[in-house]
């Protein structure tokens, strides 16, 4: 049988890895797919660099539209990234009747509904395993492996840069700025790390997982996003003393009145497996009603881990290339007509527990006033820790862990506590999840 012909748009880190893995494991892939899969065209603005990677094994062009227009190309792999030209090229490929594989989480989180609808109308597939958590097959698990389950929640460490920074801050007691410089020197963080450290990259990924888990459209604009730039070494240390670790989590949870969709630093009990994921590794926990809790762990980035997911998508499309479009796995796991317009809850409606650190005057009655305000707002306390403040003898750090409460209620309580004359600095507030 004639091999499936693939056109590759962009041959940077992931593109080079994809070309290498596909050629190195060609025989194994052919045995699994039932026919060969060959990258026969590559488009990249840096033609000389591209030729240095592919040699004579593929035709190299500067214009991606040449690849899309080639009638011999069955699948287009988009590895350009971003929202702009990548969207245009993906939609053009779909209109030309090409299947698409992409690792572009930003594109899908923002424009996924439009892209999936265009693919459905044209009868082609859009595969995107590499868009979330690199080589971890979390998309396939949610779309297929857990089909029998009503998913209750998904929580993941889905950005390796921030996880590396938090791991280093915990193990070495360093502040954020110092570890960020180290991460940049080691190549874990970009020169402009904004998407990573502000939580935007993780929010793109959890938006996609939320859509698949709950059968709703992708709605990145409704996600709550908070990064790690204001985290302090003192809070990581106090969390450790209380039996918790701080991770940047992407969380999406089904509630009776809607769906939570949020990214923020989170305290997790240190005995949870996900709390012990260190360095640049990724992990995702999925809670289903039938299977219970499942954990997916591995490398979330890098040339060959991400290439592994890209090639897996190529194999899936090759297997289903001639199948009736109505009998393929839907892009978001649920049949297109069955997607629900379930509301995404605002952050004020989210239910979670909290870690609070207050720098207060070392005076009698201060704790009573603080706990009184919490009680007034019907917020119950789980634990209290008092430590001498680094600022001086007349001040103390008061650390409070609460039970679950509505975020809006906590926000009102914080405003009232912050106004107390005995509260000497801005209150630190970090959300806490037990992930039971």
Automatic annotation (TrEMBL):
It comes from the Bacteria. CDD domains: ACT_HSDH-Hom. Its EC number is 1.1.1.3. SUPFAM superfamilies: ACT-like, Glyceraldehyde-3-phosphate dehydrogenase-like, C-terminal domain, NAD(P)-binding Rossmann-fold domains. Residues 355-431 form the ACT domain. InterPro entries: ACT-like_dom_sf, ACT_dom, Asp/hSer_DH_NAD-bd, HDH, HDH_cat, HDH_CS, NAD(P)-bd_dom_sf. Pfam families: ACT, Homoserine_dh, NAD_binding_3. Keywords: Amino-acid biosynthesis, Methionine biosynthesis, NADP, Oxidoreductase, Threonine biosynthesis. One of its GO terms (molecular function) is homoserine dehydrogenase activity. Pathway: Amino-acid biosynthesis; L-methionine biosynthesis via de novo pathway; L-homoserine from L-aspartate: step 3/3; Amino-acid biosynthesis; L-threonine biosynthesis; L-threonine from L-aspartate: step 3/5. Belongs to the homoserine dehydrogenase family. This is Homoserine dehydrogenase. It comes from Rubrivivax gelatinosus (Rhodocyclus gelatinosus). The lineage of its organism: Bacteria, Pseudomonadati, Pseudomonadota, Betaproteobacteria, Burkholderiales.
